[in-house]
């Protein structure tokens, strides 16, 4: 198991390195640079000094090596657009806000989606099933920003139940969470429904029925326990989806999270902030993938064995 | 001998998009206490549907038990049981071993828990007592190191061992009837014999009645007391094992017997195989269902269903060849052999 864990860690570092490299060269390939608007009207000599200060006068490969060197010392650098704001400080200040929103959205999305899917499967071809499938299709087709605007209009402007935008109290989190998790609810409901229907037709369900056990035990221990396994597979892409969705949702609801910082940074060609946040998001995603894999082993005993074999 | 199970005029249909499939068409049989009865026939002749009906395990819909059907267990009508009564009946009084042990066990549940589950439900044992009993059952069906193996998952067992586990599950609550639905079909030939022997042993030890469903007459020869041959949802011939093997009367029984490989056959010819397929159960049947594949087929066979003819008190057959005015045909070689 130790060897397996070490191997996984090595792969994680390798993945991170590849992502850093690709992102670095991609953002430097975009025309424009972070200082161009500031330095536009400066005399040539001052401009040159200005660029030299941030090392932007060097070639891209040289800058890359420099960046990696700093990174190895744990130095993410500071914002080019707003001197004095360290990248690490930005993450520290804004990440908890995004994390809260993201966690709320993924938890509610997964739980509500799974419950709806199970209900739909057991009430197959009756009205609860049709209702759930209607919600699911809506959730897949309706972009989160359209839903966000709708929620703002109906729930905050018309009925004044929740604040339209901003951040602070728990009430502020309700609308963005709904907007963010709706897609996950839809995906999970559809996935869980077909998974449950698949399990219901398995031979071992017939065995369980022939034992004369209670309906609760049948559904809980035999049906759901097995139906949930494939649902764990799509947890990783769902987490990625929540990350992506948060960029849009945060800017619609004016939430001071990490996502809106990243969007601003890209618009400003703020190289250091883009790199820092990319590394942060990437690391977070890799760790959540690892957690999904571990969860897989917890839920499915067959996976536990194959991991031992892999050693 | 007293009857523990009495099935009268059982009919089961499946409602599909194509129409009504009459899988079982009014069959009658009974099961005595402590007896082994075999239902024999090829795929799709209604054996499994019959077996599942005894426990009300066919999914309804699409399945439908026809009006006038009756399944009596110890004088109680199974088809009229409430859901709770049915749950108390399944597992405790009657249980089933399924065909494919590879898919019949819950992959995410420990073996011990799967056996203990019915014990906690029916015998009101607590978890610990149930697991102790599970260890005993595993030992009884011949799983070594049962104490540790109750913590294993199904994928850690071979096919033969899984079928033993299935038998342990089925017999955990000491049911009066065990239905074995092709219990050896998915297993290697060497394991088949072991599993049958185990079933026979347990039957003698616990006094359980067994209904063995199979397509392989070779399997039932040393196992069953009586054999019912099914074809197209009907029982075409009933009799004791000796009746069927030595004095079989139905051409379909002859065909089944001829399909069993014989090591000592004098003429080393190709193994017999019955041509054609069973009739489409979507269509109404006129005449004998076997007529189109029967080499003794007569005009009347295609027009009218043959009546049941009693040969002796245990042996009966539905075939026009038994009619007094039918031509006398010579029975195939396979029957006249002295074993």
Describe the structure in brief:
The complex is a heterodimer of chains A (311) and B (339). With 311 residues, chain A is mainly α.
- List low-confidence stretches of chain B: none
Return Rg of chain A in Å: 24 Å
Largest sheet of chain A: none
Strand content of chain A: under 5%
Mean pLDDT figure of chain B: 84
- Spatially, the strands of the biggest sheet of chain B line up as 7-8-9-3-10-11-13-12
β-strand number of chain B: 13
Q: What fold name goes in the CATH topology slot of the largest domain in chain B?
A: Rossmann fold
Structural class by helix and strand composition of chain A: mainly alpha
Low-confidence stretches of chain A: none
Classify the beta-strand content of chain B into a percent band. 15-25%
Describe the 3D structure.
The complex is a heterodimer of chains A (311) and B (339). With 311 residues, chain A is mainly α. Helix content of chain A is 79%, strand content 0%. Chain A is globular and about 85 Å long. Chain A contains 14 helices and no strands. Chain A starts with a helix and ends with a helix. Chain A has helices at residues 2-29, 36-39, 44-53, 60-72, 87-122, 127-141, 144-158, 170-200, 203-210, 215-233, 235-252, 258-267, 271-299, 301-310. Chain B is of the alpha/beta class and 339 residues long. Chain B has two domains: 3-224, Rossmann fold, CATH 3.40.50; 231-336, no CATH class. Chain B has helices at residues 47-54, 83-89, 111-122, 127-140, 146-149, 159-171, 189-206, 217-220, 241-247, 251-258, 299-303, 333-336, and strands at 3-16, 19-32, 36-40, 63-65, 70-73, 76-77, 94-97, 177-181, 209-214, 226-231, 234-240, 308-310, 316-318. In chain B, the strands form two sheets. Chain B has an eight-stranded mixed sheet with strand order 7-8-9-3-10-11-13-12, with helices on both faces. In chain B, strands 1, 2, 4, 5 and 6 form a five-stranded antiparallel sheet that branches. In chain B, α6 runs parallel beside α7. The longest helix of chain B is centred in the middle third of the chain and has 18 residues, at 189-206. Chain B is globular. The mean pLDDT of chain B is 84. The interface between A and B is medium-sized, with 23 and 30 residues.
């Amino acid at each position: 198991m130790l060897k397996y864990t070490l191997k996984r860690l090595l792969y994680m570092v390798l993945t991170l390195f590849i992502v850093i490299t690709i992102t670095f060269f991609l953002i430097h390939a975009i025309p424009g640079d972070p200082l161009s608007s500031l330095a536009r009207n400066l005399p040539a000599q001052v401009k040159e000094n200005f660029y030299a200060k941030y090392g932007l006068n060097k070639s891209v490969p040289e800058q890359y090596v420099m960046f990696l060197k700093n990174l190895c010392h744990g130095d993410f650098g500071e914002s080019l657009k707003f001197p004095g704001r360290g990248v690490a400080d930005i993450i520290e200040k804004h990440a908890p806000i995004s994390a809260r929103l993201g966690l709320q959205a993924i938890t509610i999305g997964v739980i509500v989606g799974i419950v709806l899917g199970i209900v739909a499967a057991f009430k197959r071809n009756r009205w609860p099933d049709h209702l759930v499938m209607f919600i699911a299709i809506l959730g897949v087709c309706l972009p989160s920003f359209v839903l966000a605007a709708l929620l703002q209009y109906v729930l905050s402007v018309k009925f004044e139940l929740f604040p339209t935008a901003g951040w602070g109290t728990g009430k502020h989190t309700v609308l963005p969470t709904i907007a963010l998790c709706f897609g996950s609810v839809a995906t999970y409901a559809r996935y869980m429904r077909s998974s449950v229907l698949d399990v219901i037709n398995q031979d071992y369900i017939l065995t369980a029925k022939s034992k004369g056990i209670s309906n609760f035990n049948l559904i809980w221990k035999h049906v759901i326990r097995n139906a949930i396994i494939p649902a764990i597979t799509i947890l990783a892409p769902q987490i990625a989806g929540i990350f992506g969705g948060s960029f849009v949702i945060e800017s619609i609801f004016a939430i001071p999270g990490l996502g809106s910082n990243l969007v601003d940074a890209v618009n400003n060609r703020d190289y250091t902030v883009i790199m820092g946040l990319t590394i942060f998001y990437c690391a977070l995603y890799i760790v959540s993938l690892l957690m999904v894999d571990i969860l897989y082993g917890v839920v499915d005993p067959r996976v536990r064995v194959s991991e031992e074999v892999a050693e | 001998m007293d009857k523990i199970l009495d099935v009268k005029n059982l009919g089961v249909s499946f409602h599909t998009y194509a129409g009504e499939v009459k899988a079982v068409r009014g069959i009658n049989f009974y099961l005595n206490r402590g007896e082994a009865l075999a239902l024999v026939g090829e795929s799709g002749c209604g054996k499994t549907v019959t077996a599942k009906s005894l426990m009300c395990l066919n999914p309804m819909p699409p399945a439908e038990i026809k009006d006038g059907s009756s399944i009596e267990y110890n004088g109680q009508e199974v088809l009229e049981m409430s859901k709770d009564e049915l749950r108390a009946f399944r597992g405790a009084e009657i249980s089933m071993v399924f065909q494919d042990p590879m898919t019949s066990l819950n992959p995410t549940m420990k073996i011990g828990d799967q056996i203990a589950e019915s014990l906690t439900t029916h015998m009101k044992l607590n978890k610990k007592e149930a697991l102790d009993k599970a260890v005993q059952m595993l030992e009884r069906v011949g799983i070594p190191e049962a104490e540790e193996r109750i913590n294993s998952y199904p994928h850690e067992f071979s096919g033969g061992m899984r079928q033993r586990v299935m038998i342990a599950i089925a017999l955990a609550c000491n049911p009066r009837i065990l239905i074995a639905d092709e219990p050896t079909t998915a297993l290697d030939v060497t394991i088949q014999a072991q599993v049958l022997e185990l079933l026979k042993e347990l039957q003698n030890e616990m006094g359980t009645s067994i209904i063995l469903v199979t397509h392989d007459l070779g399997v039932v020869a040393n196992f069953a007391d009586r054999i019912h041959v099914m074809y197209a949802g009907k029982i075409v011939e009933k009799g004791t094992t000796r009746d069927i093997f030595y004095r079989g009367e139905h051409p379909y029984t002859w065909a089944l017997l001829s399909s069993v490989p014989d090591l000592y056959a004098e003429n080393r010819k190709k193994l017999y195989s019955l041509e054609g397929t069973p009739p489409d159960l979507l269509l109404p049947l006129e005449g004998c269902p076997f007529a189109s594949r029967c080499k003794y087929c007569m005009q009347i066979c295609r027009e009218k269903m043959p009546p049941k003819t009693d040969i002796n008190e245990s042996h009966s057959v539905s075939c026009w060849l038994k009619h007094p005015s039918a031509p006398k045909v010579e029975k195939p070689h396979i029957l006249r052999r002295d074993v």
